[in-house]
């Protein structure tokens, strides 16, 4: 990195979300591979990861654990949620898209602050919630 010094709180919410998106996707892929074992295909992993990193899934997860966030984390999440980003035609609603942007902004913020244990805690919770939801949907429940 360059020698510039800044606080993650100074960054625009979409920049935080940009980073948070890749942090979340890498976490999901890593967990899926570790949990799948050797009898899995890359295609199956990719299909499951796509569902888990979707705006719809992220928005659902955020609602489930929003109460566990600190005031600082809520402020970052809300800043991400309020941002006016352009989006391409996607299967998610604008509300889901904004909530997922808040989720991603929070992850990007925690990553830049170096709060690895909190980041891992929240991503673990989000992953478990999404995996449970994904499993129910796969079995038709």
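Sequence proposed for the structure above (141 residues):
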């Amino acid at each position: 990195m360059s020698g510039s010094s800044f606080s993650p709180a100074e960054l625009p919410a979409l920049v935080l979300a940009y980073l948070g998106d890749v942090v979340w996707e890498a976490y999901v892929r890593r967990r899926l591979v570790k949990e799948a074992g050797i009898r899995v295909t890359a295609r199956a992993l990719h299909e499951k990861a796509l569902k888990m990193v979707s705006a719809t899934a992220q928005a659902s997860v955020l609602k489930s654990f929003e109460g566990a966030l600190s005031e600082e984390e809520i402020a970052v999440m809300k800043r991400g949620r309020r941002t006016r980003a352009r989006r391409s035609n996607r299967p998610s609603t604008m509300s889901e898209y904004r909530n997922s942007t808040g989720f991603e902004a929070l992850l990007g913020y925690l990553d830049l602050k170096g709060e690895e244990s909190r980041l891992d805690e929240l991503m673990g919770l989000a992953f478990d919630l999404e995996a449970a939801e994904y499993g129910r949907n796969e079995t038709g429940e």
